[in-house]
Prior knowledge:
six-stranded antiparallel β-barrel; alpha/beta; five-stranded parallel sheet
Amino acid sequence: MSESSEISILAKFGENEKFLNLNGAKKSEIKALAIGNFDGFHRAHQKLFDALGEHGGIIIVIADTAPKLTPPSLISQICEKEIFYCDLVRVKNLSGAEFIALLNANFPNLEKIVVGNDFKFGKNRASDAEFLRANFAGETLIIDEFKIDGVGVHTRLIKEFLNAGECEKAAQFLGREYEISGKVISGQGLGAKELFATLNLDASEFYMPKHGVYATLCRVKNKIYKSVSFIGHRVSTDSNFAIETHILGEFGANFTPKRASVKFIKFIRENKKFANLSELKAQISSDIALAREILGNKYER
Length: 301
């Protein structure tokens, strides 16, 4: 398992630093802030971000270092706003008024704060969005719950969809296909010799969807390939956990990427144990055929 990016970021905080930006952005240039955990950067979160304007920034509160839907490595790819990280441990004992004062001290030109209607902050989460509106001198914009077909969009629900292998529902609420990425690592060596060649990923900072086989899209160096991917313990061979992606079609003899990402399109089947490699290979052949059918021409890139 690789070190989580949240742990890496926490290690970069100075002794008295409360809001850390990794790009050297000047806090004095920020005029609007959205504040929250924002795991997922989903469609409800985007409503907050859209309200920030040109000089807006986002404060992501790091409450734990568990795998995320959007760890920092992905946020940097999908968000153009300046990101400021806040370590919850450093601010959790502040009262609501003290936290507002801290914001004003760090962002001297702050004019607007954008939060969701369920926003809580301060010691014991005792302060809410209306407290912020009453005590912050600038504008407080409270965004109502965003719903799809009458259902509120929340990170918890997206994780439930992924836990059930419901990629399409997760994508609808995220506003994009769920994607994980990481370093390409060495596998057990059976793929190219006995089965099918795969890219093996270390994506341990990402939240893992249901274990099994998926029709996927693999992105390498900004090029998209149709693929079939496996997540889970290799119960038919060495029992180790793995993320393996087999790319459909030709990709060149010198195809040795250092990083890759996988977008989940549709769940194909549960993980299962096979009596021998011949049975496993036959099943993978069926998986590949079904993935080709699922992806079809819709995902030509």
